[in-house]
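Suppose you are handed only these lines of text.
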Amino acid sequence: MFKREKSIEIQQNRDVRCAHGKVAIQGIGMSVYSFFVDGLLIDTGSYSLSQEFQSFFKELSIEQLALTHSHEDHAGNAAWIQQHKNVPIYIHRDSVSLCAEDGEYPLYRQALWGERPAFVAQSFGDTLQTNSAIWDVIETPGHTTDHLSFYNRETGAMFTGDLFIQTKTKVVLDEENIVHTLASLKKLLNYDFEVIYCCHAGFIEDGRTKIKEKITYLEEMEGAVKQLFNKGYSVEEITKAIFPRDYPITKASGEQWSSKHIITAFINQFKQESLT
Ligand SMILES: [Zn+2]
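From them, the structure of the protein bound to zinc ion can be written out as follows.
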């Protein structure tokens, strides 16, 4: 069995309590956040950190749970919340039935994040009401098709789930569509926000600037990919040209995480454009 190193740290950023869970296994370390504001819990962290996150949840008067998407590192403790807090759990309509079953994930993800036990969720409306704010529930597909972001109209805080993570994305999960990610990042700019709360990077004070930087980074990459594509380069050749480095996660995940998925999504877009 794998040995996991685990910890949790609670921080307060403005009106938001941020629980920063960390898990490391064989030298690969990851962070995941859960947020609490105005009676609302946003994401639950991973089951591998269930004891750590439970100590956070126990101190809170949680009235409802909003999930940005169904991945095991976000919804891993939703079943515990259901059993111990008995509050409504909201997720994208397309994931309600998925969450009624235990999650199935490859071994390397189970090792890092643990299981995602089944729970009963309901779908969101267009907005969400907490004690002192109305929130926009924003469809932001890309990382997954069911991905949502949450905007607090009262404080202007934006909760971005796994939409941002970092500026210079180098590898993505096979189910991520970077073309959709880029469109979702642009969509967020329609809202009046500065700070973001990211589920893997935490509180980012200049979040709007960071999101703009990510948009620029991806657009420049898109341009570079297009040039090579028009010259007739293959996916493999373009990937090697844009991402000369190999990332350890690519091999460790059996290529579920790879730079190639970024290139493939751009190329599929170009092919579609040339058909219309
Ligand atoms: Zn995710």
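What can we learn from it? Residues 4-221 form a domain with the Metallo-beta-lactamase; Chain A fold (CATH 3.60.15.10). The longest strand covers residues 4-13.
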